[in-house]
Amino acid sequence: MNTSYILRRLFYGLLLMLGVVVLNFLLIRLAPGDPAVVIAGEMGGATEEMLESIREEYGLNKPVLTQLGIYIANVAQFDLGESFFFNQPVTTLIGHRIGPTILLVITAQLLSIVLGVFLGVIAARKPNGPMSAFVSVFATIGYAVPVFWTGIMLIILFASVVPIFPVEGMQSVKLRDAGFFVKALDVLHHLILPAFTLAIIYLAQYARLSRASMLEVLGSDYIRTARAKGASEGSVLFKHALRNAALPILTVAGLQFGNLISGALLVETVFNWPGMGRLAFDSILRRDYPTIMGVLFFASFMVVVANILTDLSYRLADPRLRGR
Amino acid sequence: MSDQSVTEFKAESPALEAWRMFRRNIPAVIGVIMLMVIVGATLYGTFLYGGDPFEIVWAPHEPPGVTPEFPLGTDYLGRNIVAGMLTGGGPTLAVGLAAAALTMVIGISLGALAGYYGGWVDNLLMRITEFFQVLPALLFAMVLVTLLSPSLWTIALAIGVVSWPQTARLTRAEFLKIKELEYVTAARAIGARNKRIIWKVILPNAAPPLIVSATLTIGVAILFEAGLSFLGLGDPNVMSWGLMIGANREYILDAWWPVTFPGLAIFFTVFAVSLIGDGLNDAFNPKLRER
Amino acid sequence: MSALLEIEDLRVTFRTRYGEVTALDSVSMHVNEGETLGVVGESGCGKSITALSVMGLIPSPPGKIAGGSIRLNGEELTTASPARLRAMRGPDAAMIFQEPMTSLNPVFTVGDQIAEAIMLHQKVDKAQALKDAVALLDRVGIPSPETRAKDYPHQLSGGMRQRVMIAMAVSCRPKVLIADEPTTALDVTVQAQIFDLLNEIQRDFGVAIILITHDMGAISEMADRVAVMYAGRVIEDASADDVLDYPQHPYARGLIDCIPALGRDDHRLAEIPGVVPPLHLLGQGCAFADRCAFKQDRCTREKPLLGSHGHHPVACHGIEEARL
User: What is the similarity comment for this entry (chain A) (predicted)?
Assistant: First the structure.
C-alpha cells in the first residue's frame, strides 16, 4: 500500500466533510423563518439582543457566500456554534457524548461480525442442513424486527423476568466512587443489552452474507487444491476459505457503518444510553439546531473515518489490490 | 459432469417462468397471504370496527383478554389498542409505499444515467451518491422532517431522500453490465436514441433485481417510518404503530401490551414483505436456488 | 507383482435434479510404479471424476462412491476414514489441476502455499518448510525462486503457476501424481515445457503419473499405457503404442483420426459427429451407438463389456462379433 493512495483517500474524506458542512449551512437556511431565530431555537425564548449577537457571529447580514465562508471557517476551527438550550458550545456537548456512542457502535459491530461470520461459516458447511435453514430464517426475522422494539422487549424481559442486566443508562449511581476497574466492568455490564439489541439485525445479515460468500468460495478451485494437499477441514474452512470470503464481508461492514449509527440513535433513546443519538433526540425535540447540525457533522465524520479504515484494510487483506 | 438439458427447452416468457417459480415457493406465498390480511385489516378494519384510536374509552392499562370490548386491552391513557392497531397500519403502509416509490424513482434515474453515460456524468453522480451514503440516514431524515414540519408527505419525502443511494448503485451496476450486451448494440445500430435505449431497452432487462430491491425497500421504509414515529417525529394527528410504541414507552414495566402488539404488527408486515422479496429473488434466479 | 494403484469396478453416482445419475460405471484401470497412464476422452466422460475418486475428493453430497474399490499400495481407499485420506493426500497421491489461474489461493504467497503442504505431512518448522519450498521452486524451473516464493499467484503467469502447482504436488514425494489436463489452459509453447517438466519429475522422483487429457498428441509423447473413456466407462485399455497404432473401438479410432499429423496434408481433419449424451439420458445400449458408423441392432439393446476380443481389451459389440 502506498502513501499517495492514503493521502488521496484522506483528501477525498476531507472533501466529503466539506460537503457535510455546506449541507448543514443549506439546511439552516431551508428552515422557514429567520435563520437567527432558527439557530436560537424555538424553545430558547430568544431575546432581541441574543438574535443580534447570533446575526453578528454568523454574519447573517452579509451576502450568502460570505456567510458560508464564515461558517466553514468556524467549523474548521471546531467551532460548531453554541447550543442555546444547553447553554454550552456544541463541540463540548458532543465531546461528552461521542465516547459512549463509539463504544456502543464498535461493540455492536464486532459482536455482529464475529458471531454472524461464525454462524455463516458453520451454515456453509452444509448448504441444506438445519444450520443453514436457521441462518436464513434468523436473517429474515432479524431484518424485519424494528430495532427499538427489540430493545423494549429485552427491557421488559430483563427488568422484570430475569433481572441480570441493567436496562438503563451507562453507569450505576452507587458505584460513582469505585475504582477504575470496577467502573469499567459496570459500564460493560450496562453495555450488554444495548450492544446486543443493536447487533442482532446486523448479526443476522452477516450470517446470511458470510454463508453465501463461503458457499461461493468453497466451490472454487483453490479450495480443492487445499484439500488435495491434505489440509484439515478446519484449515480449509477458516484459513483458506474464510480469508477469501471475508473480502465481501469487509465491504459490507464498511457500508453498514452509517446504518449502525442510525440504529444506535434509536437504541440509545430506548436504553437511555448517554451518547450522541440520545443528544440528537433531545435536541430535535427542542429544535436546538446548532446541536442537531453538530451531531450530523460528527456522525458523518465517524462514517467517513470508518470508510477510510475499511478501504485501507480491504487493500491489506487482498494482495491483488496492494501497491496500486 | 455434463449437464446440458436438451429436453428442458420450453418456450415461455421469463416473467411467466418467474411467476411459476414464485407460486411454488411456500414462504413467499405465505408472505403474500400475510400481507393481504394486514392490508385488508387496515383498509376495512376501521370501517367495520369503528372507533377513534385517540379517544379515551376505558380505564388505563386494562390488560388484554379481560374486557371483551377491548380484546387487546387499553394503553396508558385508556385508549383502545385494537382501534390503534387497525387505524395505525394505514399511515405506516402508505408512507412505506410512497417512500419506496420515491426511493426507486430517484435511485433508478440517477443510477441509469450514471451507468449508461459513464465518464464525467458517472463520476459526478457517484460522488453525490457516496456523499449521501456518508450521512447517517435516520439522523438526516430526522433533521429533514423537523425542518419541514412532520406530516405523512414530508416523512415519505425524507425517507426517499435518504434511502436512494443503494438503489442508484444497483441500477448503475445493472446498466454497466447490460449496456455491453449485443441487443443494446443492435438497438443502437438501428438508430435508437439514448432515451429510448435507456428506458425501453436496458431498463426492462434490469427489472428483475430492481423489482426485488423495490420490495425490500418497502420493508426498510416501513421500519423507517416506524422509527420516526416512535421518536415522536411522525404526524402527531395520525395514529401509527410506531407512535403507539413511542407513546407507551415510559410505562413498559407497568404494561407490556400497549408496546408489544403494535411491534408485532410492524414485524409481521416487514416479515411478509421480505418473504415476498426473497421469493421474487429466487424466482428470478432459479440457478441460485439449486445450490 | 500387483500394481501401485488399482481401480476395480468403480461406480460413482451423483444426485441431480434428474434423479440419481451414474457418472462412473464399472471403471477399472491400474497404474504400475513409475509408469505413465494416459486417460483420454471428451469432456464429461468421467476422467476427472475418476481422478477425484482416487483423491477422495468427490464432492459429497451430491456425489458418492457407490461400489468397487480403489487400492493404493494395497490399501483400500473407498472405505478409508477421512483422516486417513487426508494423511494420504500429498505423501501418497497428489494432484495438479486444469486451471492454474484459479487453483492457487489468491491471498497467500506461493511460498507459503507450498510450505503448508510440506508442514502438513512432515515434522519441520516454518523456516525449514519455506527453504524446502524455494528449493522445489528452483527444481521446477522457476527463476530467482527466493523472490518468487514471496509473490502472490496473481503476480505469476499461467505457466509459472502450473509449475508452482507441480512443485506443491511433488513436495511430499507422492507415489502417484494425477495431472488433470495440466496444459489445457496454457499457451502451446508453454504446454511442451510443462510436459518436459513432468517427464523430468517422473525420472527424478520415480513417481507414477496419471495424465488425464483429450489431447492424443500428449498421450503419444507421455504415456506408457492408455485407458480410453466414454460416458463414464472405460472402452479401451492397452499400451499407448497399441492404442495409437491399432485403435479398436470406433470412438478411439475417431480420436486418433483427430490428431493433425505433419506431412498428411491431403487429409481433412476428421471429426466425430454428435456430442457425448447427457448422463441422465443414457439408455440400455452402448452410449456411443448414436454417433457410431458401425451401429448394429444389438448396440442399442445391450451394453458392451470390456473384454479381450481382439488385439487388446475393448468394449464394443462390433469388434467382438468380427472376431467371433
Answer: Belongs to the binding-protein-dependent transport system permease family.
